[in-house]
Amino acid sequence: MRFDVITLFPELFGPFLANGVTRRAYAGPIEVHLWNPRDHAEGNYRRVDDRPFGGGPGMVMMAEPLERCLAAVQAQRAAPAPVVLFSPIGTPLRHAVVQQWSQGEGAVLLCGRYEGIDQRFIDRYVDVQLSLGDFVLSGGEIPAMALLDAVARLQPGVLHDEGSHQFDSFNPALDGLLDCPHYTRPEVWSGTPVPPELMSGHHARIEAWRRAQRLQTTARHRPELIEQARAAGRLTPADEKLLQSGDGLL
């Protein structure tokens, strides 16, 4: 799997790719190549942006340096890859989207800056637009890192426990619910003990407690996920009984 990142700030990715558990992915199943469009710009100043037609604040990334950069990227790949732009109008980056990318061959990740990218380049070359949410960042580098990180941790051998990601929030293995709370030593901290169910050693009791906590946490913080699980037939009669009780919040 190969990701090519087009960015004006490739140096931002150095620490990200070299630290944390996901660094195993970037030294193994995932290749990450960084490309600076300034290296494909013309003139003494290697200009990559200009003022917007029609006036207004800020600058717009020019189509020509990006086109030359993208051509160089695609020429080095075994086959043309989809071009992903991180944009406020994009599809929200959710777990199901990450799973799709984690099973593919990679992509070209385009990180915009300034007021944006010349729309003509977007119309001609961009295949997919993704968004982290309803807010604006200074550029696409942080969303690109978010996608890379989310994809990397789903690769075999990256996490210490192969089944760890199966218990992540939003995972189908948890019926799309949020994860439950977690506790570790000491058994009593600042006067608060670990829930007795987790100390019981009774696996069925522990799993029942965790299921109840996932339902309660999801109902409290992301009730729309409960509705999605219900519509998909993922909730059991016992789940529904809990949700209709005072403990379940719904």
UniProtKB/TrEMBL annotation:
InterPro entries annotated for this entry?
Alpha/beta_knot_MTases, tRNA_m1G_MeTrfase_C_sf, tRNA_m1G_MeTrfase_TrmD, tRNA_m1G_MTases_N, tRNA_MeTrfase_TRMD/TRM10
Matching HAMAP family:
TrmD (MF_00605)
Keyword tRNA-binding annotated: no
Indicate what this protein is called per its UniProt record.
tRNA (guanine-N(1)-)-methyltransferase
Query: What Pfam families does the annotation carry?
Result: tRNA_m1G_MT
Q: Does the keyword Cytoplasm apply?
A: yes
Name the UniProt key words of this record, in alphabetical order. Cytoplasm, Methyltransferase, S-adenosyl-L-methionine, Transferase, tRNA processing
The tRNA methyltransferase TRMD/TRM10-type domain sits at: 1-228
Q: Where in the cell is it found?
A: Cytoplasm
User: Under which EC number(s) is this enzyme classified?
Assistant: 2.1.1.228
Q: Which reaction does it catalyse?
A: guanosine(37) in tRNA + S-adenosyl-L-methionine = N(1)-methylguanosine(37) in tRNA + S-adenosyl-L-homocysteine + H(+)
SUPFAM superfamilies referenced in this protein's UniProt entry, alphabetically:
alpha/beta knot
Q: How does it assemble?
A: Homodimer.
Q: What is its main location?
A: cytoplasm
Query: In which family does this protein belong, per the annotation?
Result: Belongs to the RNA methyltransferase TrmD family.
Gene3D superfamilies from the xrefs?
A: 3.40.1280.10, tRNA(m1g37)methyltransferase, domain 2
Function, please?
A: Specifically methylates guanosine-37 in various tRNAs.
Residues annotated to bind S-adenosyl-L-methionine: 112, 132-137
